[in-house]
Design a protein that fits this description.
Number of strands: 0
Helix content: over 70%
Strand content: under 5%
Distance between the termini: 29 Å
Structural class: mainly alpha
């Protein structure tokens, strides 16, 4: 439990960082733009998309430097942001899937959109994260389950950062608070499912079985 404390602290910092991002977004929306849509530039979108991951990483490093390799954490985040995320989005786009958060700040939740989000978009992203975790993270953490959870979170946050950046830049001008909420939803979903994938892989390793 003591070894898991830094990881739990980092996850809590991630949640608090996302809540802070949402708060800043709503304050900026009402104070700077008077409730109107805010212009979304590339630097602002990039900063907003990577801020939660930066908070998580800083919180983890201040708690411990022994749990996981810093270069590997950074490398897996980049792998998620520049390889796994784009690859999953490319597959989903080529299959004609309707992304659940795409097209407008408040997309209509129709049955085809929900089915497409789960069956195509969701599976594409989770398969991409699984491959990154299984083949890039597991060989370096086979005997350290907590380290694998850290690496899986890094991959997931990289994927979420890519998706958040793309969503924000595609929307263009949008309410800052709504944009921050979109980032929070993406980060929470990707991070939670990334940890779940890591737990499944860990369970398979413990049983001395190869992951499916």
């Amino acid at each position: 439990m003591r070894r898991a404390r830094p990881l739990l602290s980092a996850e809590l910092a991630l949640i608090l960082g996302m809540l802070a991002l949402v708060g800043v977004g709503y304050l900026a929306e009402h104070w700077l733009w008077g409730g109107e849509s805010a212009p979304m530039t590339v630097p602002v979108a990039l900063a907003a998309a990577t801020f939660p991951a930066a908070v998580w990483f800083f919180a983890l490093r201040t708690q411990t430097r022994d749990l996981a390799s810093t270069p590997l954490i950074v490398g897996l985040f980049v792998l998620g942001a520049l390889v796994a995320g784009p690859a999953a989005r490319l597959v989903a786009d080529n299959l004609g899937a309707a992304h659940p958060l795409a097209s407008s700040p408040s997309p209509e939740l129709t049955l085809p959109r929900v089915v497409s989000a789960i069956a195509v978009v969701g599976l594409s992203y989770e398969a991409a994260k699984y491959l990154a975790i299984r083949y890039a993270a597991l060989p370096r953490s086979r005997e350290q389950p907590l380290a694998l959870i850290v690496y899986a979170t890094a991959v997931a946050l990289g994927v979420a950062a890519h998706e958040s950046y793309r969503e924000l830049t595609e929307l263009g001008a949008s309410p800052a608070g709504a944009g921050a909420l979109r980032i929070m939803a993406l980060m929470l979903a990707h991070a939670a499912l990334g940890v779940l994938i890591a737990l499944v892989v860990i369970a398979a390793v413990v049983r001395q079985m190869s992951p499916l």
